[in-house]
Design brief:
Blueprint lengths: L5 H6 L10 H15 L2 H4 L3 H31 L18 H15 L15 E2 L3 E2 L1
Antiparallel strand pairs: 1-2
Helix pairs in contact: 2-4, 4-5
Length: 132
Protein backbone atom coordinates (compact mmCIF):
# COMPACT_ATOMS: atom_id res chain seq x y z
CA UNK A 1 0.00 0.00 0.00
CA UNK A 2 2.75 2.46 0.92
CA UNK A 3 5.05 3.98 -1.65
CA UNK A 4 7.94 3.18 0.69
CA UNK A 5 8.99 -0.35 1.55
CA UNK A 6 10.47 -1.28 4.91
CA UNK A 7 13.81 -2.11 3.27
CA UNK A 8 13.92 1.25 1.48
CA UNK A 9 13.03 3.07 4.70
CA UNK A 10 15.75 1.31 6.69
CA UNK A 11 18.36 1.79 3.95
CA UNK A 12 17.74 5.53 3.53
CA UNK A 13 18.68 6.99 6.87
CA UNK A 14 16.27 5.22 9.21
CA UNK A 15 18.33 2.14 10.12
CA UNK A 16 17.99 2.98 13.82
CA UNK A 17 14.54 1.36 13.50
CA UNK A 18 15.97 -1.96 12.25
CA UNK A 19 15.08 -3.67 15.54
CA UNK A 20 11.42 -2.61 15.35
CA UNK A 21 8.83 -5.21 14.38
CA UNK A 22 8.46 -4.94 10.56
CA UNK A 23 4.65 -4.94 10.81
CA UNK A 24 4.79 -1.85 13.03
CA UNK A 25 7.08 -0.06 10.56
CA UNK A 26 4.75 -0.97 7.69
CA UNK A 27 1.73 0.23 9.66
CA UNK A 28 3.27 3.69 10.14
CA UNK A 29 4.48 3.87 6.54
CA UNK A 30 0.96 3.08 5.36
CA UNK A 31 -0.61 5.52 7.79
CA UNK A 32 1.73 8.30 6.69
CA UNK A 33 0.98 7.56 3.03
CA UNK A 34 -2.78 7.50 3.46
CA UNK A 35 -3.39 10.15 6.12
CA UNK A 36 -0.51 12.59 6.46
CA UNK A 37 1.33 12.99 3.14
CA UNK A 38 -1.08 13.66 0.27
CA UNK A 39 0.49 13.56 -3.19
CA UNK A 40 -1.34 16.75 -4.18
CA UNK A 41 0.67 18.80 -1.66
CA UNK A 42 3.96 16.93 -1.35
CA UNK A 43 4.83 16.27 -4.99
CA UNK A 44 8.44 15.10 -5.36
CA UNK A 45 8.92 15.37 -1.59
CA UNK A 46 6.28 12.73 -0.84
CA UNK A 47 8.65 9.84 -0.15
CA UNK A 48 10.74 12.01 2.18
CA UNK A 49 7.55 13.13 3.94
CA UNK A 50 6.30 9.57 4.35
CA UNK A 51 9.59 8.45 5.87
CA UNK A 52 9.87 11.45 8.21
CA UNK A 53 6.29 11.03 9.37
CA UNK A 54 6.68 7.29 9.96
CA UNK A 55 9.96 7.83 11.82
CA UNK A 56 8.25 10.40 14.05
CA UNK A 57 5.49 7.96 14.98
CA UNK A 58 7.97 5.13 15.59
CA UNK A 59 10.04 7.41 17.83
CA UNK A 60 6.90 8.42 19.72
CA UNK A 61 6.03 4.73 20.21
CA UNK A 62 9.43 4.24 21.86
CA UNK A 63 9.06 7.35 24.02
CA UNK A 64 5.59 6.40 25.20
CA UNK A 65 6.62 2.81 25.89
CA UNK A 66 9.56 4.04 27.98
CA UNK A 67 7.37 6.54 29.82
CA UNK A 68 4.72 3.92 30.55
CA UNK A 69 7.37 1.49 31.85
CA UNK A 70 8.81 4.23 34.05
CA UNK A 71 5.37 4.99 35.44
CA UNK A 72 4.73 1.31 36.18
CA UNK A 73 8.02 1.13 38.07
CA UNK A 74 7.14 4.30 40.01
CA UNK A 75 3.71 2.94 40.94
CA UNK A 76 5.19 -0.40 41.99
CA UNK A 77 7.71 1.37 44.23
CA UNK A 78 4.94 3.42 45.83
CA UNK A 79 6.08 6.79 44.49
CA UNK A 80 3.10 7.31 42.21
CA UNK A 81 3.02 7.70 38.49
CA UNK A 82 1.50 9.75 35.75
CA UNK A 83 -0.15 9.10 32.43
CA UNK A 84 1.87 9.33 29.22
CA UNK A 85 2.20 13.01 28.41
CA UNK A 86 2.95 13.16 24.72
CA UNK A 87 0.44 12.97 21.90
CA UNK A 88 1.76 11.13 18.85
CA UNK A 89 0.60 13.85 16.48
CA UNK A 90 2.66 16.53 18.25
CA UNK A 91 5.34 16.75 15.59
CA UNK A 92 7.47 19.11 17.69
CA UNK A 93 8.41 16.32 20.08
CA UNK A 94 10.87 14.52 17.79
CA UNK A 95 13.58 15.58 15.37
CA UNK A 96 11.80 13.59 12.65
CA UNK A 97 8.54 15.38 13.40
CA UNK A 98 10.16 18.83 13.34
CA UNK A 99 11.72 18.06 9.95
CA UNK A 100 8.35 16.79 8.70
CA UNK A 101 6.60 19.95 9.94
CA UNK A 102 9.23 22.23 8.39
CA UNK A 103 8.83 20.57 5.01
CA UNK A 104 5.02 20.50 5.22
CA UNK A 105 4.86 24.17 6.22
CA UNK A 106 7.19 25.14 3.37
CA UNK A 107 5.03 23.27 0.89
CA UNK A 108 1.85 24.84 2.27
CA UNK A 109 3.13 28.40 2.22
CA UNK A 110 4.94 28.04 -1.10
CA UNK A 111 8.51 28.55 0.08
CA UNK A 112 9.30 24.97 -0.98
CA UNK A 113 8.26 23.78 -4.43
CA UNK A 114 6.49 20.42 -4.75
CA UNK A 115 8.20 20.12 -8.14
CA UNK A 116 11.75 19.12 -9.01
CA UNK A 117 12.46 22.62 -10.25
CA UNK A 118 15.98 23.95 -9.80
CA UNK A 119 14.83 27.39 -10.94
CA UNK A 120 12.21 27.73 -8.18
CA UNK A 121 12.53 31.24 -6.74
CA UNK A 122 10.44 30.72 -3.63
CA UNK A 123 7.48 32.58 -5.14
CA UNK A 124 4.49 30.30 -5.69
CA UNK A 125 3.11 30.50 -9.22
CA UNK A 126 -0.16 29.54 -10.80
CA UNK A 127 0.08 26.95 -13.53
CA UNK A 128 2.14 28.50 -16.32
CA UNK A 129 4.29 30.77 -14.21
CA UNK A 130 2.09 33.68 -13.18
CA UNK A 131 2.77 34.70 -9.54
CA UNK A 132 -0.07 34.05 -7.12
Amino acid sequence: MSLVTIDYFLAHGYNRFATVEPLLIQTWLDSATLSYVPASLWGVHRVAGIMLCAAHFLEMEWAQTAETAGNATAIASGSGGRSPSAQQDDFQLTTWGRRFSYLRTGLQNGTISPLADEAFSGIPTLGIGFPL
